[in-house]
Design goal:
With about 180 residues, the chain is of the alpha/beta class. It has eight helices and four strands. Strands 3-2-1-4 form a four-stranded parallel β-sheet, sandwiched between helices.
């Protein structure tokens, strides 16, 4: 069947309006690329990641503050693993749990803190919302710099290294002036 024939069949099955929207979405993906494709295209090689581990920028401690509340286990595990995979090693993660009612959220946080000393977990009795929980986490941060992260984010392995690189570059620029 030709492309035109497949398009006609698709339009009959799904309707003309939906078909036009899908054509627009596909054109957008082809023209601009998808986030996933862009991420894969720009992902550092294993050799680059190893070089980053061996040559960290001098940026000091970066505190990653993360407000947590009833996060799905899958999302929280992905976030925690993405932090452990960082090529920049001088970081701490302050995971401020705003009184999650899902027992698996608290259990996973405690498990993660037991396995990774850079995870600091605070269990609050009351949820202060994303802004309040974030502010509480910031108040507990020990780092020279703060990185904001949501409880269902995933960081690329070089995210904190890139942040450290920018910090070091700015420190170098200031020392020259």
């Amino acid at each position: 069947m030709s492309s035109i024939g497949r398009l006609k069949t698709y339009a009959r099955t799904h309707g003309i309006g939906y078909t036009i929207r899908r054509i627009g979405e596909k054109a957008d993906q082809v023209i601009f690329g998808t986030w996933d494709r862009q991420r894969k295209r720009e992902a550092p090689s294993p050799e680059t990641l190893q070089a980053q581990r061996e040559h960290p920028p001098e940026a000091g401690l970066i505190s990653v503050v993360i407000p947590v509340y009833n996060t799905k286990e899958r999302f929280l595990r992905d976030l925690l693993q993405s932090l452990k995979d960082q090529t920049y090693g001088e970081w701490e993660a302050i995971l401020y749990d705003g009184g999650s009612t899902r027992p698996e959220t608290g259990a996973l946080l405690d498990e993660a803190a037991a396995e990774e000393k850079r995870f600091r977990v605070i269990h609050a009795e009351k949820n202060l919302g994303i802004a309040g929980n974030t502010n509480q986490a910031i108040a507990l941060a020990k780092g020279d710099y703060i990185a904001l992260c949501d409880h269902d984010d995933v960081l690329t392995p070089d995210a904190l290294w890139r942040m450290g690189e920018a910090i070091a570059r700015e420190q170098d620029r200031k020392s020259v002036v």
